[in-house]
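[Meeting: bench + compute handoff]

Bench side (C.D.) handed over the final construct sequence. Compute side (W.E.) agreed to return the predicted structure before the next meeting so the bench team could plan truncations. Sequence as handed over:
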Amino acid sequence: MKLQLALDFSDMNENLRVLEETADLVDIIEYGTGALIPNGYAGLKALRERYPEKTILCDQKIMDGGYIFTEQQAECGADIVTVLAAAEDETIMLAVKAAREKKIKVMADLCGVKESLKRAEEIKKLGVDYICVHMATDGSHEKSGAPVLQKISDRLGNKICAIAGSVTPEKCREIKKLEPGIVIVGSYITKAENCRKAAEQIRNALK
């Protein structure tokens, strides 16, 4: 299982501070939506310049403009882009097309999708590399996260799956039984008094 760290501070200095403490403990750096909106692609470029060897995901949550936005993010340093599973098939297909041309990957986020398993099967056929079960901050998604992950893993395989949303060491102990390809952690690490210690706790819980 790969550990993805979601950085969502509007102040890029805060995101960089967290990374200084934790970068060696994470596999994927996520340039989160909360950081992207105020900082634009300049923040993505800054992360790529600072961490040239790391896998970087840009969480723009593409809903339209699949080709152009994927292309732009790749050119700014992203290794993985995100598209909403609720987007039109054509949008997802174009994102995948651009990703293949740029030799990067696409993660589809199931946030807001009601028939998660059905849509997961559809978007896998469209060529996405990862499918994220997102236990969103708003709404009542948290309780459904693990069962949905289980269903998708059983049908499509666990390596394509990622899980995000309020992930803690306690939840990791449940999640690791399903062995998703990626576990995404944000505020448990980024808002901790000791970010490195929090990241180590997550790592240990996933062992």
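W.E. noted at the follow-up: Strands lie at 2-7, 28-31, 55-62, 80-84, 105-109, 130-134, 161-164, 182-185. C.D. will use this when planning the next construct.
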